[in-house]
Amino acid sequence: SIDFVMEERNKTLGEFIIENQKAHQYSSGELSKIINSIRLAAKVVNYKVNKAGLVDIVGAAGDQNIQGEDQQKLDVYANEVFIQTLINREIVCGIASEENDEFITVEGLDKSHNNKYVVLMDPLDGSSNIDVNVSVGTIFSVYKRVSPIGTPVTLEDFLQPGTAQVAAGYVVYGTSTMLVYTTGHGVNGFTLNPAIGTFYLSHPNMKFPEKGNIYSVNEGNYIQFPQGVKDYIKYCQAEEEDRPYTSRYIGSLVSDFHRNMIKGGIYIYPTSSKAPKGKLRLLYECNPMAFIAEQAGGKSSDGFTRTMETIPTELHQRVPFFCGVEAMVEKAEEFMKNA
Ligand code: AHG
Ligand code: MN
Ligand code: MN
Ligand code: MN
């Protein structure tokens, strides 16, 4: 057998990016450069995450972010790595992050403000899981600016509906580290070979199964959920044909989503009396995941309307989030409507 050269049958992410650029005729290659920078930053963060218990990177950093959350050291570290990697390559005109109060203006070469893309990101998703060696992730989203080239980036460049995304993806630092992304032509997943620092195409053209039997929701908040969500959870638990469904909740959106896309499931973070607007952030978490979900044949909404059609009004806006297998999201929406 030639199993030991298995990896070499697969394309690398670097090769894939070049082919993708040619196939879809991105004029300038700027988008390819952005994905390349994210690939690089992901490897740097992966290296740190992997030895988290050995170096002084576990635990709280001592500050709170604008979300009112205690920042973990790894939140701050990942944020710095992704921002610096993008800034140093002078390929974006602006960056917005869960960990920064305001967006960052990137001047670009000769302070020309000539770059045309903005990146929005959740640098470290699932940060409450770092200390206990459970999978965490990174989420990113790319838009073309709407303000004129040659001028500083504006808030409007970031407050675009998810339908305007040109690329979105996530990195999951799990039992293996994967980078999964879309540029609107399907979803592809790449697994890192940590020994040589190369991502290989391991999951081409990822699709949600047509049916699923996993539901992921923090049921500790059950009492506080809207009636429609309570009813849907009871539906998941009922003894009927293919039910009860299986409950799986990691507490890292990236990991929960990743499992549900591969095995078939629905993720719900609804409103609750504690979080009246929901918890997850539209721009850094929900829209990129929604774009990936739809590109993989899944569906995403706030329980009533499509996530990507929400018109954002502020950078750190929160929304309820229902995302996963299309038929499952539609079922949950039915319960929301009839509650
Ligand atoms: P972050 O670590 O980026 O702040 O995101 C945390 C999010 C998400 O990853 C996860 O699914 C959710 O918060 C978990 O919230 P609960 O602990 O309330 O279930
Ligand atoms: Mn956070
Ligand atoms: Mn997050
Ligand atoms: Mn985060």
Q: What would a concise description of this structure say?
A:
With 339 residues, this protein is an alpha+beta fold. Helix content is 30%, strand content 23%.
Secondary structure layout:
Elements: H1 13-24, H2 30-50, E1 60-64, E2 70-72, H3 73-88, E3 94-97, E4 104-105, E5 117-125, E6 136-144, H4 155-158, E7 165-173, E8 177-182, E9 187-193, E10 198-203, E11 214-216, H5 227-237, E12 246-247, H6 253-263, E13 265-269, H7 282-295, E14 298-301, E15 321-325, H8 326-338
Bound molecules: 2,5-anhydro-1,6-di-O-phosphono-D-glucitol and manganese (II) ion (3 copies).
Question: Largest beta sheet: what is the strand line-up?
Answer: 4-3-5-6-7-8-9-10
Which of globular, elongated, flat, extended, rod-shaped describes the shape?
globular
Q: Determine the strand fraction and express it as a percent band.
A: 15-25%
**Biggest sheet overview:** 8 strands, mixed
Hetero groups in this structure are: 2,5-anhydro-1,6-di-O-phosphono-D-glucitol, manganese (II) ion
Mean pLDDT: 94
Estimate the helix proportion, in percent: 25-40%
The SSE order reads: HHEEHEEEEHEEEEEHEHEHEEH
Distance between the termini: 58 Å
Number of beta-strand segments: 15
Number of helices: 8
Radius of gyration: 20 Å
Category by helix and strand content: alpha+beta
Task: Point out poorly predicted stretches.
Answer: none
Describe this structure in words.
This protein is 30% helix and 23% strand. Strand 3 and strand 4 form a beta hairpin. The radius of gyration is 20 Å and the shape is globular. The longest helix has 21 residues. With 339 residues, it is α+β, with helices and mostly antiparallel strands. An eight-stranded mixed beta sheet has the order 4-3-5-6-7-8-9-10, with helices on both faces. Helix 1 runs antiparallel to helix 2, helix 2 packs antiparallel against helix 3 and helix 5 packs across helix 8. The chain starts with 12 loop residues before the first helix and ends with a helix. It contains eight helices and 15 strands. It binds 2,5-anhydro-1,6-di-O-phosphono-D-glucitol (AHG) and manganese (II) ion (MN) (3 copies). The site of 2,5-anhydro-1,6-di-O-phosphono-D-glucitol has 11 residues, from strand 5.
